[in-house]
Amino acid sequence: MKRILIVDDAATVRMYHRKILVDAGYAVEEAVNGIEALEKAIQTTFDLFVVDVNMPLLNGYGFLCELRKQDVPQSPAIMVSTEAADSDRTLAYQAGANDYLIKPVKPKQLLTHVRLLLGEVRE
Amino acid sequence: MPIDYKKNQVLFREIVGVEEAEGLLEFLHKRPAAKIDFGGCTHLHPANLQVLMAAKIRIAVWPKDANMCFWLKSALQPEK
Amino acid sequence: MNPLLVQFLSEARDTLYDIGQKLMQLEQTPDNADLMNELFRPVHTLKGNSGLFDFPEMTRVLHAGEDLMVAVRDGRVVYSREIADCLLDAMDFVGQLCDEIEQGITEVSHIDDAVRLADALRKLIAVNAARTDRVESLDNIGVPEQPKPTNFIKSKNLFSLAPVPETIRMDAFRRILKGDPLHRLVYSPVEDCFFQGDDPLHQAQQTPDVLWCAIVARESWPNLVDLDAYRCVLVFNLLTAAPSEELVELYRYVPDQVVIQPVDPLHLVIPTGDPNGGPVYEDFVAEALLHLDGGNLASLGRAARTMLELSNPDLWLSSALRWLLLLLENMPSNRAVLRTLIESLRTLTPPDWSLTDHDAAEPATEGLSENVTDSLNSLSEEDAFERDVILDAQRQILMLQDQPAWHSGRLKAVATTLINCCAAMGEIQTAAEIEAALKTGLETGSGGLLLDWLNARIGMPTLRANLSEIVQSPQGQQQTGNVISAFTDEGPKFGRRAEDQIGPRSLKVDQVKIDLLMNLIGEMVVSKNALPYLAQRAENQFGAREVAREIKAQYTVINRIVEEMQGAIMQVRMMPVSFVFQRFPRLVRDISRKLGKEVNLVLEGEETEADKNIIESLADPLIHIVRNSLDHGLETPEIRQSCGKSAAGTLIIRAKQEADRVLIEIIDDGKGIDPEVIKRKAYEKGIIDETTLEQISDRDSVNLVFGAGFSTAETVSDLSGRGVGMDVVRTGVERVNGAIQLESEVGKGTHIRISLPLSMAVTKVMIIESDGQIFGVPMDHVVETVRIRRRAIHTIKQSKTTVLRGRIVALKALNVLLEIPAEPRVNDDELAVLVVRVGSEPVGLIVDDFHETVDVIQKPLEGVLSGLSVYSGSALMGDGSVLMVLNMKEMV
Predict the structure, then answer these.
(1) Partner residue facing A119 (CB), from C389, C396, C420
(2) What is the CA radius of gyration of chain A?
(3) What is the ipTM of this complex?
(4) CATH of the structural domain B3-76, one choice from 3.30.750, 1.10.3470, 3.40.50, 3.30.457
(5) Cβ-based neighbours of C425, under 8 Å, separated by 6 or more
(6) Strand runs labelled E in C241-358
(7) Residues of C with CB under 8 A from a CB of B
(8) Which residue of C has its CA nearest to B68?
(9) Which residues of chain B make contact with C212, given a CB cutoff of 8 A?
(10) What is the DSSP string of C579-612?
(11) Are residues C591 and C657 located together in one domain of the fold?
(12) Hey, are the CB atoms on A93 and C397 less than 8 Å from each other?
């Protein structure tokens, strides 16, 4: 079972994403800020990260930069943001995100991206 | 004159043709606070419409003609 | 020049070439609809792109050209050679404009030409259309015209319906269920439409049954100072209940500017409003689902109504409840839809209807079920779309110019993403390639290799595709703004450059810079040659044998590096012969039509590469030869048929690489060259004397056409015989150290071979000595060096000869050839003979001594010296002396 870490300070968003992903058969863990996420990512290996931008303590960019510096398997990361501007997108890519989705993410779109980023062939 | 330029108001009358756009642009550039009165306007060439959209002007009076009003609002009064 | 313009010009050139090719292909198969579409696209793209700049003349002509092509594509006009001619003319005109823009020539106005060309193109539409009409009415078999399917897009939503007020959406929803056709229509007038007298607002206002409209700009508004009021950037997004036929009819003059899409009623169900001001309505959701599962729809309706009364109508919740009641009323049996809407209350996110399992419920209306299957079938297509989005993101990441501390981690993540994406699409075998590219990338700290892999994998960057789509679909049009802002937004923050977006795989470098590099390496080659002299002096003059040895050792190292460097620069300068070949299809077509001949042109080996100078110097001679072949070689169809040949002649132009030379062959199956005619003519013109006339072989005599002042054309035609003959060709080829040879058989055809060096910048010469002076002989001509005993030299008919490997070789003393009054030096009763080959026969040059071979950069002789044909040029030696390089062709 593929493991996904949802990093978001908003409980509703975490719930929303969790429901979509759990229903699709993924093992999901949650972190409420960048620091917690980084600790979890170093302890265990995740196959994918779904990361919010604005969070207390360490935001999404900071988390991704730190994650990409770690000596751990570098799994793909989706940054989920409310900003649609190209400059925000580029900032996410610079920080180490591999994909960028605009909130609110449609369940279908999220699942398609997750599936592609995890390398799963559609049955 | 299809467009009547007042101190801080622009009055549109009947059919406002393409050739007015340049003058309108110039005026709005100088008086960004001017308000628009469409009261007597029955048709507006879209070149003028572009100027009004770009200038983000305020509308004082919408056209009496309901059809005209519908179309102008679709450009100048975005849905809340 | 701004990068966008540079990009436009370079793309325009490619596009024009592409258009030319396709026009000619189309002539062969005028009914090929695919080809017509392929042709339409680049013209359309070019027109659209030209509109980004202020090139009214270009846009005008392209616009007319596009209209003509649309007419042809739609079958209103029949494709003909006349049309092709006119379109080719137009494209030439555009090409010329591009050249002028590039050279910065702006003052010349071509508006007259533009108007003339555009009129000519439009006239063809009118004339042909009239003609076709007549045919139809005569035959009276009017096939009903199909509405163009390109205008209909079903899979992707043109614009979001969320901004449409709820009341209008509810009204629309009811109308669809009642059976009214509901369409999204996006009308994106072209930018120059005001100049064509169009009033898009008026056009849009004619649309029947408009429920809602939003007039938006396809790019963000600039400051008023920069606003061009007369460049139309408006886009009309309409929701209409008019049937599609009516819409197609209304917009028939601008079919390419309109997209129509039927509306799925569920897409209207978008709760909107304030999401705040309430708890998560978990209790209500639980209760509602209970009613739904129990089939108790009346209770569900009651619960919803109660909840609605308790809530502020502006809330998101209230909006969702209103929709729930509407759905209950209109499609109560569709449980899945109801469930989705209820569950959306948990997240306060609009339901994604494409995910809903519609099949579980009985479809409420036929229209609905149709739309549902549509969205299911298009899943894999959407997958591909999302995959492209992800791949494109990886490309953007790889193109970032920064080098942060987490660079390698980022690279690894990109590689994993690429591997997974490919695996998800069932391409597992690519993983190894990506991993290899990653490994190199991590070692070098650059994502270049991964980027190369990605670009090669997904073809050209999608931007190019986007650009051509912009004008095609209005959805793309809204993206135009983004694309362009990506160009102009050159914020150093992201290190993005316009060029990067287009073709990060290759680097465009100004030719001047390469030439400079070439000159520098040339000087380096010469300078490094000074080292052996230095070593010699160190040893001989200063007795520093050790130093001399070290200098020699260093020289070997430098020599190797310089050679590699030279090779690398040569590689940069290499160009495919297609650069020259690509103009032939057009040339052959034009000339053969003018002459009333039919010619099949066969191009082979276009990918063969040679130095830029060589390729460039090849162009003129080759064009001349091809013109000659068409003019004098190939016969008219009537003559050919009377000789038992096929009506159409064949002209083969072939290139291939042989060792360090490029071989170009031009072969025609025309009437050939009669050696008798050539001989007589050469004699008459005083090119050969009487003795030669009698003795010359047929093979040699046909090559007399290359002699100066020889022209076989009996009348001077405007094509090839402008007083200059094939001698121009020979001179051109020889200027770059090439050789040309002609073989011909009367009645069968002519075969011309041009052999050229791969590169011309550096020549290897052998240094020889005669009467105390040194000379250079290009190694291309040197066969061998031998020392011959004096008694092995025989005199046959006053000329000296010797026998080498069973062949008689004529001997010539260099001193005699150079008119040096000295006898050859004899060492130990032996003479030094340099065997050279010019043409087919080897000749022995008697010299005093041979020395080493060196690389030199030949400079042509200037001033009075340029008249000395025995020298091909001079070269500077490492010790500063000047070496005269002998021109073997002239001497022997």
Answers:
(1) C420
(2) 13
(3) 0.94
(4) 3.30.750
(5) A116, A121, C383, C384, C387
(6) 258-262
(7) 163-165, 194, 199-202, 204-205, 210, 212-217, 221-222, 224-225, 227, 229-230, 232-234
(8) C205
(9) 74
(10) HHHTTHHHHHHHHHHHHT--EEEEEE-TT-EEEH
(11) yes
(12) yes
Say how many CB pairs under 8 Å bridge B and C: 75
Residue type, C526: V
C residues 420-479 lying closer than 8 A (beta carbon) to A: 420-426
Domain boundary among C574, C592, C615: C574
Identify from C407, C420, C438 which residue to disrupt to test chain A contact, counting A C-beta atoms within 10 A and taking the largest count.
C420
- Measured CA to CA, the distance from residue C776 to residue C874 in angstroms comes to 9
**Spatial separation of the C-alpha atoms in residues C833 and C843, rounded to whole Å:** 9
When CB atoms are compared, the residue of C165, C194, C201 closest to B71 is: C201
Give, rounded to a whole angstrom, the gap between the first and last alpha carbons of chain A.
16
Tokens 């090439």 appear where? Answer: C738
Looking at the structure, do residues C604 and C620 belong to the same domain, yes or no? yes
Does C393 lie at the interface with A, CB-CB under 8 angstroms? yes
Residue C810: closest CA among C838, C852, C770: C838
Residue A123 domain-assigned? no
Q: Does C280 touch chain A (CB under 8 A)?
A: yes
In chain C, which residues have pLDDT < 70? 1-4, 48, 51-54, 106-108, 127-157, 276-280, 354-382, 428-429, 457-506, 508, 708-725, 760-762, 860, 862-863, 866, 878, 880
Angle CA(C775)–CA(C781)–CA(C785) in degrees, nearest 5? Answer: 70
Query: pLDDT by residue (tens digit) across C636-683?
Result: 898 898 988 888 899 999 999 887 788 999 999 988 888 888 888 888
Neighbour count for residue C744 (Cβ, 10 Å)? 25
Q: Check C201 against B74: CB less than 8 A apart.
A: no
Provide the shortest C-alpha distance from residue A68 to chain C (in Å): 4
Whether the Cβ atoms of residue C463 and residue C482 lie closer than 8 Å to each other: no
Q: What's the CA angle centered on C488, arms C482 and C494, to 5 degrees? A: 85
* β-sheet bridge partners, residue C754: C664, C740
In the structure, how many helices (H) and strands (E) does chain B have? 3, 4
What per-residue confidence (pLDDT) applies to C461?
37
Mutate to test the interface with A, among C156, C219, C358, C417 (most CBs of A within 10 A): C417
Whether C417 and A121 lie within 8 Å, measured CB to CB:
no
d(CA C842, CA C835): 6
Is A92 contained in some domain? yes
C448 in a domain, yes or no? yes
The residue out of C345, C377, C409 marking a domain boundary is C377
